[in-house]
Amino acid sequence: MKLLRDTWLMFHRYFVIFISNPAWVIIGVAQPVLYLLLFAPLLKSLVHIPGFPSGGAYNVFVPGLLIQLGLFGASGVGFALIAELRAGVIERFRVTPVSRLSLLLGRALRDILTLLIQSLILLGLAIPFGLKPTAAGVLVMLGLVALIGLGMSSLAYAAALALKDENSYAPLVFTLSLPLLLLSGVLLPLQLAPQWLQDIAKVNPLSYAVTAARDLFNGNGGSPDVWKGLAIMAALAIVGIAIGARRFSRAIA
Amino acid sequence: MIHTRQLRRTFKSRRGPVEAVAGVDLDVLGGQTFGFLGPNGAGKTTTLRMLSTLMPPTSGQATVAGFDLRREPGRVRERIGYVSQEGSSYEDVTGRRELVIQGRLYGMGRAEAQRRAAELLESLELVDCADRKTKTYSGGQKRRLDVGIGLMHLPDLLFLDEPTTGLDPQSRARMWDEVRRLRESGTTVFLTTHYLEEADALCDRIAIIDHGKIVAEGTPDELKRQVAGDVVLVGTDGPTERAHDILKGQDFIRELTEEDGALRLYVDRGETAMPQIIRLLDGAGVTLATLSLHRPSLDDVFFRKTGRSLRETAA
């Protein structure tokens, strides 16, 4: 009960900060939109290549873009935490009886909300280009994005609390997120990759999310790959929360 | 309100364990304003962080606000307020919101938190900027808001970590008034400071920590007497050698130094030492030019106890 109340209080705090500067939603969604406008058209001529998944260029590409949004959007959240850390706000909360887990969850829920708003914007923009979503597919997709957001932003917060400094946090995040992106099959389907690359990609949890997302948009909503993707992202979220919460309750020297 | 016995905190470093706090015994009674002084790196902040539940002690016992620090940190948290050196408000949030959420985190209802926030904004003279983001605040306003945040839930004990560092003289005087008001209201205040005159002006008792250990503890007057006694400056007509010879070896003089053509005598009680000095010098035919009595400052105490001047370490 206390956890729920504290999480709500924290969520509310960060939501208010967020709506006082909503430009970040647009900035966050700008990058995937650029991919949509300037990259996706290239795929149109590739759809007939053997191995390219069926469903059309946009139905293949946009689900991956949503995963990318989740990855990049959530990994940037550590910057605001470092600013708060420096201002003494986190210390101040840790001296109150507030639930430590809520310090993490309240923020992560706000990040999820941001991601969902951005996802809907992106989906809306993709429809004129030829994306044909189904209502059920979009709903499960949003659930998948929420799980990625929860896992990735928890991990991002743990990293921010451990490093306490933008100058070490930024290189870490960029160094990690690029291989995660390339090995997820977001830009081009991994079915086109040589076997060794496909094997490496199997270690990347996000590749399962991308496969699940493509199935959701291409009429395979009930496929085992969807469940697998959801289960792996749920596991990632649980691991992320465990690591993040531990960081929030530990001494921050 | 605070009782610690052999409180210790060890950090691991590449060159082996470092004892930041090496067995600290403190007793702070309810209602006192207690000053905690020490050079940077002496263990001051580590002690403060342990007492405010931010960092678990490596060993030792402590009760804070009536509860065991190690067994019931949650109960301790409910009763203490903590104002850190770095501040505690976020630039994109208004002062009022910071206060309200603080109250809510201690379990207050929305209406109660808002009422208490309004009360504090009033008494801390922050009404005019209450609904502006804190990035627009002056240094003094920000610091007062920090104190307000620490006081939101009416704690029995308030930790103030260098409450006036970096403030202009006016804001500093304003903060002193605030600490005095807390004392009058019965709140126990545990404060660290780099300014000895601040400790002198505000604190009932003072402890000095150096190299992780308490090196002096007592009321400001006790400390000054214990360490340095009083200082008597003696000026003579002409050279000081004769006076020096006469006074050297008198048991009521603890220490004798020469400085700028005058003698500086450290004595236990200046009031009784002065007539004796006059008699001795008069009897020997040395003409006194000047004779003055000085109370030692906490600076003297600090210097004697740690071998460093506090201001040098204040960087």
Structure write-up:
The complex is a heterodimer of chains A (253) and B (315). With 253 residues, chain A is mainly α. Chain A has one domain. Chain A is built from twelve helices and no strands. Chain B folds into two domains: 222 residues, 3-Layer(aba) Sandwich (Rossmann fold); 66 residues, Alpha-Beta Plaits (2-Layer Sandwich). Chain B contains twelve helices and 14 strands. In chain B, a hairpin with a 2-residue loop joins strand 12 and strand 13. In chain B, helix 3 runs parallel beside helix 5, helix 5 packs parallel to helix 6 and helix 8 packs across helix 11. Chains A and B meet through helix 1, helix 5 and helix 6 of A and helix 2, strand 6 and helix 3 of B.
Task: Tag the structure with descriptive keywords.
heterodimer; A: 253 residues; mainly alpha; elongated; B: 315 residues; alpha/beta; Rossmann fold; Alpha-Beta Plaits; 2 domains; 6-stranded mixed β-sheet; 4-stranded antiparallel β-sheet; 12 helices; 14 strands; 38% helix
Number of strands of chain B: 14
SS-derived structural category of chain A? mainly alpha
CATH top-level class of the largest domain in chain B: Alpha Beta
Shape of chain A: elongated
Give the N-to-C terminal Cα separation of chain A: 30 Å
> What is the CATH topology classification name of the largest domain in chain B?
Rossmann fold
Percent of residues of chain B in helical segments? 25-40%
State the helix count of chain B: 12
Low-confidence stretches of chain B: none
Number of helical runs of chain A?
Answer: 12
Topology pattern of chain A, helix = H, strand = E: HHHHHHHHHHHH
Brief overview:
Helix content of chain A is 76%, strand content 0%. Chain A is mainly alpha-helical. In chain A, helix 2 packs antiparallel against helix 4 and helix 4 runs antiparallel to helix 7.
